[in-house]
Structures are given as C-alpha cells and as structure tokens.
Write a structure and sequence with these properties.
This protein is α/β, with parallel strands linked by helices. It has nine helices and five strands.
C-alpha cells in the first residue's frame, strides 16, 4: 500500500536520496511502478501543490519537493517506458519564457507540477522568440503552449507570440495559456489567450480544465 502521508513527507523534506530509497522500497514490496507513480508520487505532489496554493508551505518547500519528485521520476520512468502499462499522459504541453524574459523559476515549477500530474512536458527554455514558439508548435503535436512572463516589460511578447501563431496559421493547432504573477483575466482576453494563471498550482488546474 502506498502511504500518501509518507510520500508527502519525503517530498517536502527535499531529500532526493531518501525519496529514491522510498520508491525502491515500494517497488521491492511488490507495488507496481504504475501505482507508485499514480497513487504515490502524483497524488503526493498534487497535495503539495494544494498546500502551496493554500499558503501552508512556501516556495522553498515547493522547490525542494520538485527536486525530490524529479529523483523519483528518474527511477520510475524507465520502468514504465519498458512495460505495456506505460504512463497514460493527460496531454502534451510545451512552456517557455517569452522573448526578453530570462526568469524561469515559475516556469520550472509549472513544468514540475504538470509532469507530476501526468503530462508529457517540454521545456522550451527562456528568452524564446515568437518564431521559435511557432517552430515548436509546427514541428510537434503539443496540445497546449504555455507563455511565461514575469515582467511588465516582456508581457507584450505574449501578445506578439499569439499574433505570430495566427500569422503562421498555427493558432488553431494549439491551446495557448499564459502565466506569471503579472497576468490577469483581462490581459488574457485582450491578447486572445485561452487561459491564464498566476501560479503553478492554479496553472495545473486550469490546464486540466482547458482539455476538458
């Protein structure tokens, strides 16, 4: 049986070695990699995200939980990839910080949250031009494209990226989500984004809703 409280404690401790040992112990006890992933790690990181959203924990704890989660995924992914069960991905998403913005903490937390919740994620990096966003959409089958901006001076590039997608005939191929503490519902509607979020916890929930 996967004890969620034990998983959560391990994630919040940020102890990557301890989390890796916990995962191996669960596997050795006969629990399937799929159950460890879905009933253990994903359920655990969802609870951590809820705690962050409720103000029960803060950014340092969330970052440590992210590191611990990644260490667990490094063990589980190869096992799941080699079995017929595999990982049932919720969807495929790519996220990058828009041109001129080199901030990546929020983006990285969002990627971690989504990966932990069963998404196939691609990190496009920082300072991504509208043209590079378009190329990523053209060359892949992403269902959602995330545009992150943390500065008022770079948020206009969220608009320019959406306009570039339209000009390239790619806008209907992908849902566009914008993120960052500066984003608002009004801004998302003004530039034609499909949804927005101000933090990773909210973003993960809204992307689930976006795909129905």
């Amino acid at each position: 049986m996967v004890e969620r409280s034990v998983i959560i404690d391990s994630l919040l401790s940020g102890n990557t070695k301890g989390t890796e040992k916990l995962v191996r112990d669960l596997l050795d006890s006969g629990i399937s990699a799929r159950d460890v992933m879905e009933k253990g790690m994903i359920a655990g990181i969802e609870e951590v995200g809820t705690m962050f959203g409720n103000g029960e924990i803060f950014l340092p704890e969330l970052l440590m939980a992210g590191d611990a989660m990644k260490s667990a995924l490094n063990i589980l992914k190869p096992i799941l990839a080699g079995t017929k069960s595999g990982i049932h991905y919720v969807g495929k998403v790519a996220i990058g910080s828009v041109q001129g913005d080199i901030h990546d903490i929020g983006k990285n937390i969002m990627l971690m949250m989504l990966e932990g919740n069963g998404w196939d994620v691609t990190d496009l990096g920082v300072d991504v031009s509208p043209g590079d966003f378009c190329k990523a959409v053209r060359d892949n089958d992403f269902q959602v494209l995330g545009l992150s901006a943390l500065l008022t001076s770079t948020m206009e590039n969220q608009r320019k990226t959406i306009e570039a997608l339209k000009a390239a005939g790619l806008r209907d191929k992908v849902k566009v989500a914008i993120g960052g503490c500066i984003c608002t519902k009004q801004w998302a509607e003004e530039i034609g984004a499909d949804c927005y979020a101000t933090d990773a916890s909210e973003g993960a929930q809204k992307l689930f809703q976006l795909l129905g």
